[in-house]
Design brief:
291 residues; Ferritin; Ubiquitin-like (UB roll); 8% strand
């Protein structure tokens, strides 16, 4: 028996299909045959867009899970398999939690397949289109390691920048704005650590971009504020921070739409989503401050 139950927030309800022996193929091919909307791009284990969680309903199943080096490597790159899982796979033949639907063959067992659905990029707003134009000006990133190198740099410098601003504000006694910058620095640091974790063993240091590659000679996400201004209002600080976060959003958004490499598009899409959440938080703070 091979009953496959698909579960996703993009489907109204779970769908169970029966994969007939001899015609099973991969999870992705079964999904396609039953019009289950698992997102996919390359169909060949190269991009990671078809990542799914697979639950084996019979806990005793632990044979020949068929995780190829290619799938393992990609799952590693997109942060969907841990060291322990790899070890468990290699030593005990235990299946990892996540698989690539285009690489994972359905076998004679019941499974539950959970996926998120293709999260469409947040729409660009007219207010940020200038930044979009800047980043379409020839910034070429040719590998996932290079992309992650850029992302590490962007987030590290944003965190440092907000820390400096917080210190300046504290010196001038503007503690309210100082607190705000500390919070923003915390967000960037968190994202920086996430990017580092995603990079795993990839050597991002090799690809740290120099200042001159950026159109304004500074990394995105930096505000236009450089020195301590004792009169800086909370509202102005928020607006400047919003400008920086929008540039960060544009950077990732541009790559998610234009990179020739599917794995970069997938990851840039995730980061753009994250930045759009920061933009939304800042917009809410600004709206509150105005009232
Ligand atoms: S569609 Fe499966 S890895 Fe690209």
């Amino acid at each position: 028996m091979a009953n496959i139950t698909f579960e996703s927030p993009v489907m109204g309800k779970d769908v169970t299909v029966y994969a007939v022996a001899g015609h099973r193929g991969t999870i992705l091919s079964v999904a396609k045959a039953h019009k289950i909307p698992i997102p996919f791009d390359c169909g060949d284990g190269d991009c990671g867009s078809c990542v799914v969680e697979v639950k084996h309903l019979n806990p005793k199943v632990r044979y020949g899970i068929g995780l190829t080096e290619k799938e393992k490597e990609l799952l590693k790159q997109i942060g969907k398999i841990t060291k322990e899982e790899i070890e468990n796979t290699e030593v005990n033949d235990m299946p990892p939690r996540h698989r690539l639907a285009c690489q994972c063959f359905v076998r004679d067992e019941d499974i539950r397949v959970i996926f998120d659905g293709d999260e469409v990029l947040p729409a660009k707003k007219p207010a940020v289109s200038i930044a979009a134009a800047i980043f379409s000006g020839g910034l070429e990133i040719n590998s996932l390691a290079e992309f992650l190198g850029y992302a590490v740099k962007v987030e590290a410098e944003a965190a440092e920048h907000f820390d400096d601003l917080a210190k300046d504000m504290e010196k001038c006694g503007n503690t309210e704005v100082a607190e705000l910058f500390k919070k923003l620095s915390g967000y960037s640091r968190l994202h920086h650590d996430e990017v580092k974790a995603q990079a795993g063993e990839l050597d991002t240091e090799l690809y740290m971009p120099e200042e001159h590659v950026w159109p304004d000679l500074v990394t995105p996400e930096q505000t236009e504020l450089w020195a301590g201004d004792p009169w800086l209002s909370k509202l102005d600080a928020l607006k400047a921070a919003l400008h920086g976060e929008r540039l960060g959003f544009e950077f990732y958004h541009h790559l998610a739409e234009t990179s020739a490499l599917p794995e970069i598009r997938t990851m840039a899409k995730e980061f753009a989503k994250e930045e759009s959440e920061h933009v939304a938080i800042l917009e809410q703070w600004i709206a509150r401050e105005r009232h």
